[in-house]
Amino acid sequence: MHYDAQPFELGAAGRRAQLRVQGLSAGYGAFLVLRDLGLEVRTGLTVILGPNGAGKTTLLRALNGLIPRTGEVLLDGEPLSERTHEVVKSGVALVAEGRQLFPQMTVLENLELGGWLVPKAERTRRLEQVMSDFPKLRERARQAAGTMSGGEQQMVAVARAMMSAPRLLMLDEPSLGLAPRMVDELLGIARRIADAGTTVLMVEQNVKKALAVADRGYVMERGALVASGAAPLLARSSVIREAYLGASS
Ligand SMILES: Nc1ncnc2c1ncn2[C@@H]1O[C@H](COP(=O)(O)OP(=O)(O)OP(=O)(O)O)[C@@H](O)[C@H]1O
């Protein structure tokens, strides 16, 4: 696939984060969705694939302290807090499904909110950086976020997450509901963020395009990880070809 290959300055160069998860279980009340999950998110771009209801969003929620969990989660060797506020402070950002922008606020105001933990001088510098990495958003800085197209709003949500200069960025289905050209653009942005030094963990339904930009992938089914590997190998594997791509592709 094609994406804009211009240099991307975003990210936390030199802070190449790794996440290690062991024996993770989580769910909703008595309903356990994830059972004894283990995964390793290395630097670069890792994608989690799987059918609806497999537990992909639940995994991101559990990692970000949005639902209770048991098991071990280590970010660069240190236990990751189970409290969302602390997770953000330790350099993890989540772009949840549905984007959660403030629709009445401008693009600029939404971006500024993303830098709430960053000291003011640094926030100004980050904002300038984000604007130069997402030139489309500079043009739209004064537009109410809610009046933008779905793809543009997704871009604002990713840019807002980058305002906190995360070492690990998690994206929950960034391409959901977008036109093909915007899907390419968003996945290209995820790739460039990874190349600029922020580790990216992305949940995607768009199997073919996601594997084309990712370094590695996991396949989740019914709350368990059933396959993993380098993205090009996974794309050729029978589990992916038969379940998601059609055996002939
Ligand atoms: N708030 C909730 N309360 C109870 N059960 C939930 C809740 N959210 C999700 N579930 C259930 O947890 C399971 C996993 O859902 P999850 O959203 O993690 O799957 P997913 O792989 O992200 O799917 P999708 O691609 O459809 O978002 C499903 O059976 C779902 O019904």
UniProtKB/TrEMBL annotation:
GO molecular function annotation: ATP binding; ATP hydrolysis activity; branched-chain amino acid transmembrane transporter activity
N-terminal signal peptide: none
InterPro entries from the UniProt entry: AAA+_ATPase (IPR003593), ABC_transporter-like_ATP-bd (IPR003439), ABC_transporter-like_CS (IPR017871), BCAA_Transport_ATP-bd_LivF (IPR052156), P-loop_NTPase (IPR027417)
Transmembrane segments: none
Location of the ABC transporter domain: 19-247
GO aspect biological process, one term: L-amino acid transport
Keyword line: Amino-acid transport, ATP-binding, Cell membrane, Membrane, Nucleotide-binding, Transport
Family of the protein in this entry: Belongs to the ABC transporter superfamily.
Name of the protein described by the UniProt record: ABC transporter ATP-binding protein
